[in-house]
Amino acid sequence: MTVKWGLIGASTIARQFMIDAIRSQPDGEVVAVMSSSAERAGAYARENEISRHYGDLDALLGSDVDAVYISTTNELHLEQTLAAAKAGKHVLCEKPLALTSTDARRMVEACHAAGVVMGTNHHLRNAGAHRAMREAIRDGRIGRPLAARVFHAVYLPEHLQGWRITRPEAGGGVVLDITVHDADTLRFVLGDDPTQIAAVTQSAGMAAGGLEDGVMTAMTFSSGLIAQTHDSFTVKHAGTGFEIHGTEGSLIARDVMTQKPVGSVVLRTPKGEEELSFDREDLYARSLRQFHAAIRGEDQPSATGEDGVWSLAIAEAALEAARTGRTITIDPKLEARA
Q1: Distance between CA 292 and CA 286 in Å, rounded?
Q2: Is residue 334 domain-resident?
Q3: What pTM value is reported for the model?
Q4: Which among 3, 55, 104, 150 counts the fewest CB atoms within 10 Å?
């Protein structure tokens, strides 16, 4: 059975990554795109060889699409997901799922009640590098994990700045844009959940409207592991990386916090250093393959709706910690609390 996809949002990320990922699946087809601007939808459809375009959400959901990919601004995800679930469409939604974890839970529950698959587009857990790190930890190659460090400070390209640095009401700011990814990647690689977080945010001159364009966090995980993260929109010359340090060794990954299947992972133990091999499959193609398997009832999305609730709850707690100067308890089923 061919899975017919409709794009909700004529976005850059869909053009750069998702359209090709869908088309790379033997049972995947992009049949429609919707934008609040009918003119933009039409131009986008022509540029990307999509047969149909809509300027209205109901029109798209009333068509024969089987699944939707939502990549609109964050404040629109809730309403669009609820409408898609009501229409019986499977949903793959960009992160963060919503502006609050309470709304994100509503989305997950609506899709569950409607019997449709819901996934969160946390692309980094689809990277071969992170999967190799996860496997090394599971195999005991670094002993018991003690600490982790994620550095994901980059420079936000001018063509992506827009609402991310000017519109708090749309869910702008570096925490909802990047820290959510760190949170999900840490959970995935470690197989562990954070319980508390402290954070400090920064406004270094790019973001406006009271939004943050830099943040550092410190987290405690249920196993006792501690982790730190650094995220930024304003750092031009730093590479990205991910380190995990255990009782018997360390994993040192470089240039892996990216949308491309690149970077390196080194295992460091008393025996010396070993560069780990890993597959270089396109992250989004892997995500789509697993999502299609979930539609067939053979698997679940690589990042489920519940995973999206978790990452948003962690981001919420980070923002609350920065605002109050307190360490915040993280619970995806409850409001983050001091």
Answers
A1: 10
A2: no
A3: 0.94
A4: 55
